[in-house]
Write a structure and sequence with these properties.
The protein has 390 residues and is mainly alpha-helical. It folds into two domains: 181 residues, no CATH class; 191 residues, no CATH class. It has 17 helices and no strands. Helix 2 runs parallel beside helix 4, helix 6 packs antiparallel against helix 7 and helix 13 runs antiparallel to helix 14. The relative contact order is 0.10. The N terminus is likely disordered.
C-alpha cells in the first residue's frame, strides 16, 4: 500500500483511541443529549403528577443509557476518524428527533420517539461491530449488548401502541432488560481509557447541571421583582452546591479508583457500576431539581405543589444518595451524613410544602451548603491531599 493509500484506509475504518483527551466532536455530540434532558424536565412540568414524574424519569433513564453507550464507544475508538465521524453525525440527527419527541414520548409522539431512539441505538451497535474487527472478546461483548439492546428497543416500540399503566410497565421492563444486559453477560471484553472515560461522565454531569441554570431563564417573561431575583440567585447557589458536592472530591476519588483497577474485567465492572449505573441517579436528581427550580420561579411567593416540592428536595436527595452508593461501591464504607441529609430532605417535603417557594429554596440551600462546610472543615487535610493529587 502506498503512503497515499494509508490515510484513505484510515478514513474508511474505525481507529483505536490514542490518548485520554476528550475530542471536540464528543462535546459537540453531547449538545443534543442536553436538549433531550431539558425536554425531560419539560415533560414533567407539563404533566405535574406522579405518573408524569415517572414518565420523566423513564425518559431520563433511556437517554442516559444511549449517551453512556457512546461514551464507552469513544473510549474505544477515535470519534473523529474513519466512518465513526459520519455515524456520530447520524446519531446526532436521530437524537434530535428523540429530543423533540420526549415531551410527548408517552402520547402522540411515542412511535416517533421509539423509532428515532432505535436508530440511535442501532448506530451505536453498528459502530462497535466495526470497532471489534479482529477482537473476539470485544465482538462477543458487542453481540451480547446487541441482544439486550434489541429487546429493549423492541419493547419501547411496542409501548408506543399502548397507553396508561400498560405503557409504563412496558417501558419499565425495557429499561430493566437494557440496563441488565452488561450485568448479565459481563463486561470482560470491553475496552476503556480510564481518564477519558471519567472525564466524559464528569462533563455530562456538568452539562446536566447547566440545565438547572438554563431553566432559570424562564423568569425572563416575568416581572423582575426582588422575589424573582432572590429565587434566581438561590437557584444558581443550589446548582453551585451540587457541583461542589461532586467535583470537589467525589469525582477525583472515583476516577482514581477506576484508574487503579486492573484493566479488563475488574476495571470494566467498576466503570459499569460506578459510572453507567450510579451516575444515572445523579443526572435524574438534577432533572428533578430543574423541575423544582422552574416551578419556584413561576410561584416564588407562594407554596409549591407536593410534586414540585418533592422534585426540588427529592432531586437533591437522589443526587446525594448516588454519592453514598458510589462510596459503597468504591470504598465499601458508608457516607452517613450524606445519607442522613438525603433522608431528611425527603422526610421534610410536607414541611417544605407549607413554605413560600423562595423560602423553601433558601432552606434547601442552607442544608446543602452546611453539609459542604462541615465536610470541608472536618476533612480538610484529606481533602487537600486528594485535590493535590489531581
Amino acid at each position: 500500500m502506498s503512503s497515499d493509500d494509508a490515510p484513505r484506509a484510515r478514513r474508511g475504518r474505525a481507529v483505536a483511541r490514542t490518548g485520554s483527551k476528550v475530542r471536540f466532536l464528543e462535546l459537540f455530540f453531547d449538545l443534543v443529549f442536553v436538549l433531550a434532558f431539558t425536554q425531560s424536565t419539560a415533560l414533567i412540568v407539563a404533566h405535574p403528577t406522579w405518573e408524569g414524574v415517572m414518565q420523566g424519569m423513564f425518559a431520563v433513564a433511556l437517554l442516559w443509557w444511549a449517551w453512556g453507550g457512546y461514551a464507552w464507544l469513544t473510549s474505544t475508538v477515535d470519534p473523529e476518524e474513519g466512518l465513526v465521524r459520519f455515524a456520530m453525525f447520524g446519531a446526532m440527527a436521530g437524537m434530535l428527533v428523540v429530543a423533540l419527541s420526549v415531551p410527548e414520548a408517552f402520547g402522540e409522539r411515542a412511535l416517533a420517539f421509539a423509532i428515532a431512539y432505535g436508530v440511535v441505538r442501532f448506530a451505536h451497535i453498528a459502530l462497535f461491530v466495526l470497532a471489534s474487527q479482529g477482537d473476539a472478546n470485544l465482538r462477543s461483548s458487542v453481540t451480547s449488548l446487541a441482544v439486550s439492546s434489541g429487546v429493549g428497543v423492541g419493547l419501547i416500540v411496542t409501548a408506543s401502541f399502548l397507553d396508561g399503566t400498560s405503557q409504563l410497565v412496558c417501558w419499565a421492563v425495557a429499561i430493566v432488560i437494557d440496563f441488565g444486559g452488561p450485568a448479565l453477560f459481563g463486561v470482560a471484553g470491553w475496552k476503556i481509557v480510564p481518564a477519558h472515560f471519567a472525564e466524559r461522565y464528569g462533563l455530562i454531569i456538568i452539562l446536566v447541571l447547566g440545565e438547572s441554570i438554563v431553566v432559570l431563564g424562564v423568569g425572563v417573561h416575568l416581572d423582575l421583582t426582588a422575589g424573582l431575583i432572590a429565587a434566581a440567585i438561590l437557584g444558581v447557589a443550589l446548582a453551585s452546591a451540587l457541583w461542589w458536592a461532586y467535583f470537589d472530591v467525589v469525582a477525583i476519588v472515583t476516577e482514581e479508583r477506576l484508574t487503579n483497577k486492573t484493566p479488563g474485567r475488574e476495571q470494566n465492572a467498576f466503570a459499569r457500576d460506578s459510572y453507567s449505573y450510579l451516575h444515572l441517579p445523579m443526572a435524574a436528581g438534577v432533572v428533578l431539581v430543574a423541575v423544582g427550580l422552574e416551578n419556584t420561579l413561576e410561584h416564588y411567593d407562594e407554596p409549591l405543589s407536593t410534586i414540585a416540592t418533592f422534585a426540588l428536595q427529592g432531586g437533591v436527595a437522589l443526587y446525594l444518595l448516588a454519592h453514598v452508593a458510589l462510596r459503597l461501591r468504591g470504598a465499601h464504607t458508608l457516607n452517613a451524613h450524606r445519607l442522613i441529609i438525603a433522608i431528611l430532605l425527603i422526610a421534610a417535603v410536607p414541611a417544605g410544602r407549607e413554605l413560600p417557594a423562595v423560602w423553601n429554596l433558601a432552606a434547601v440551600n442552607l442544608v446543602v451548603w452546611a453539609m459542604i462546610g462541615y465536610e470541608t472543615w472536618t476533612y480538610g487535610a484529606a481533602r487537600a491531599e486528594v485535590r493535590g493529587r489531581h
